[in-house]
C-alpha cells in the first residue's frame, strides 16, 4: 500500500478491512510473544523493537508488489512472519508452527517464502542486497517509482560490509534505497555503545553521502513521514528509528536478556496481558 492511498492492501482477503498501523503493530507483537512461548523460543527483544517499523511499512508505505523489502536483521524473523500474515501473504495459522520440524518458518527468513526475496540473518549482508536492487532499479528507467527498504539492527553496524555498502550507495546516489536502522541500543550481550560506539551516528551516515532522518521508532505519525517521503537530495535515505528492545512487554523492555528468550506459560500470560492493556489504552 502506498503512502497516499486509502485502499486496503491488495493481498488482504476480499472485503477484509485493512488494520490501522497501530492495530497491525499490536497483532505483530502478540504473534511474536506467542512464537517466543514455543519450545524453540525466539529472538523476542529485537522482534518487538521493530514491530512498529514493520507495521508502518506494510500498512502505510510499501507499494506491493513493486517495492522491495529486505530484513537484514534476519533474527527478527518472527516479527516479519507476523507482518506478512497480517498483510495476507502468509496463512496466520502457519505462525503456530514457527521453528518446528517441517515448518518453513525458520529462525531466519528463507528465500522462497511469500514476501521474502532473500535468505538473511548473516548480519551485514542485507544492505548490500538492497544496494543491488536499488542499482538495478536505477538502471531501469521504467521502474523509477520502485523503492527498496532495508531494515537493519544497530549492532549489525559493527560489520565492515555495512560501511562498504554505505559508501557504495552514497557514491552511486541510490535515491531509491532507504535503510532503516532499528536503534534500540542493545545487542546480544551488551549495549552497542559499550561494545563499539556508533555515535554520532547521523553525522557518520551523512559523511558517507546519505540523507538522514531521525525519528521515534514507536510513534507512527513521524515514523511514517520519515519512511514514506522520497529522497529530497537525490541520495539514499537512512532512517534512524530510536526504539526500545522488547517494546510492549514491560519485563522485557530495555533488557539484554530479551535478545533471545523462551517464555514459560506464566511469562507468556504476563506478556499477553501487557499487550491487551496496551491495546485498550490505544483505543
UniProtKB/TrEMBL annotation:
Q: Which residues form the Transketolase N-terminal domain?
A: 23-264
Q: Which UniProt keywords apply?
A: Thiamine pyrophosphate
Gene3D superfamilies, A to Z: 3.40.50.970
Q: Name one GO molecular function term.
A: magnesium ion binding
Stretches that traverse the bilayer: none
User: What is the top-level taxon of the source organism?
Assistant: Bacteria
Q: Does the keyword Metal-binding apply?
A: no
What cofactor does this one take? thiamine diphosphate
Q: Does Ubl conjugation count among this protein's keywords? A: no
Q: Which family does it belong to?
A: Belongs to the transketolase family.
Query: What name has this protein been given in UniProt?
Result: Transketolase, N-terminal subunit
